Amino acid sequence: MPKLVLLLCAVAGLACANADAAGTAAESDAARWARQARNVTITRDDWGIAHVRGKSDADAVFGLMYAQAEDDFNRIETNYLNSLGRLAEAEGASAIYRDLRMKLFVQPDSMKAQYAVSPPWLKALMVAWADGLNYYLATHKQVKPRVLTRFEPWMALTFSEGSIGGDIESVSLRELEAFYGKRTMSRALPENGGFPKEPSGSNGFAIAPSNTATRHALLLINPHTSFFFRSEVQVTSDEGLNAYGAVTWGQFFVYQGFNERAGWMHTSSGADAIDEYAESVEKKGDSYVYRYGSAERPLTATRVVVPFRTNAGMARKEFIVYRTHHGPIVREADGKWVSVKLMQEPLKALTQSYTRTKARGLAAFRKTMELHTNSSNNTIFADADGNIAYFHANFVPRRDPRFDWRKPVDGSDPATEWRGIHSVDESPLVVNPPNGWLYNTNNWPYSAAGPDSPKRDRFPAYMDSYEENPRGIHAIRVLQARKDFTLPTLIDAAYDSWLPAFTDLVPALVKSYDDVAPSDPLKAKLADQIAQLRGWDYRWSESSVPTSLAVYWGEELWRAVSADADSEDMSVYAYMTTKTTSTQRLAALATASDRLAHDFGRWNIPWGEINRFQRLTGDIVQPFDDARPSIPVGFTSSRWGSLASFGARTWPGTKKLYGTSGNSFVAVVEFGDSVRARAVSAGGESGHPSSPHFNDQALRYSKGQLRDVYFYPSQLQGHIERRYRPGQ
Fold first, then answer.
1. Phi then psi dihedrals of residue 549, to 5 deg
2. What pTM was computed for the model?
């Protein structure tokens, strides 16, 4: 037989063997997934919420991921496209620098190496995580992923901490593009269409048995995130897992929630967990060096490729990126290259995120905190033993306090190196305070328990960069008001309608009006508006005209003075209260009144006619339409001290304000011999507009009417919509 024919036969035989092997592997996967599915039961209640039960923790994770994918695979895939630095493969050139930013910190080879050394129990969970998603795709051929057609276990390590906007996202994309794209910095466009930036973060309250009617500890879980960022689930196993709460799409642990003995709530922290270093860089030959002490060190240069989608197919953009021992170079400032250093412990972070869900008391929960990888959050805790606790940010590097760590420090000075991590006891910590309550509203920790709070002068300045905020003032007022809290009265406190920011701002406006000469044209123009505000009780409601006036006036004044406040290193609140002139206050009210009249035909319009909740599609970036149905919302932005937060603004083509962030999942929990809870989520559990659970909680959400949580099987009876196994 000729050699060419022999060669072709050999190649064909090899191809057939490879095809057979691939087929066998696929068949093996399918058989393995189907076998594991038999160990899992998913029960959907009458709100569409998945109660997932598995024989083992791995079985439960498998079922949890399958159920999440049923509800909104698009959000799962998008989260991992982002965490893997592959978003541009789906969204095109606009995401190139977002992907580059992620690739500076997350490399697949590193994640695979950490997966390889993971403890067997955690590796089993990561395998189950990938298997649950892959089984969903295998049994739902109609679902077409944008990029990720197969999930691998190591990928779970790329998104190991459930915050919205993690540490990496603190790196400015504009400045990153200016440095690596060699572009001139363009003038930043106003955020939110000219609206002030919406405050981010959350509320958490814990109330000790001494302050409750039932003598059981209570917990408020109130994350303020973009809507539909997390799903509400329960996940249980025969190995002791039984967690209920909010799960960030694509993760396999309850991020904010509770088990039958303990609960936890995370709030964004003002602790400095990220530092920038101004590096003294010099080019020598074809490479770069940077000064460190009396020596020079070479910068590490690495080629990074970012694939991106185009109309003609996939393209690639290549970068040479640089790093020092501090971290990657992310921008240039004042002639220095700036590197950034942050917490990068994905294996420990994933361990902490999962193990805290099984902590059944304060001692076990605190043990998880010793991993120090919940880097951007404070934590509010309560348990069935009656303990309550405030844990400050869980990753605070120990530093030389002589330096101003709010700005880039000198990277050439060895004294700027981190010196380990502050222990839990070295950070602001409150455990079982005598006053019987504690809280955090993304403010400083120095009012966390009223008079029993940590003292500011005992901690370095970098321990917290926040100040008190209007929500903090509001929280103290409602928490100290009673000693007999119940679940209903805790809900009332969480939705208390007072707007404390306006109690300072509006009287100054009224005085400015009273001081204006009768001949001033504004005296007549604003007479009715001032009359409305003069008689206002500073409380929001759907029917409140003063709320509309105050919010539009406050936003107008905020826009007018925010740059001046920044130049004087003052908070905008403080500047508006103490520095604005009568002319500025009255001019802002005139402008706000004119805007209301222009947009709605009159300035005296009730707040609920303006401030709306609308969910039309399952898109991650939603459209809004004044002509389509929407629901009035009484509560406002947390900017003004509303504990219930609704971050709303106008959108292209709209005059009404539509919310996209704020209260997203709200739960109140009572711990005792058994756990009782109520909850509500924005919109509904499903991301599919055709589902009855796409928007079935919207009205409850807008009214603060929390529904009963079905935590125990006995509570589920009579409320079961469907019970099935994955793949059925």
1. -60, -50
2. 0.94
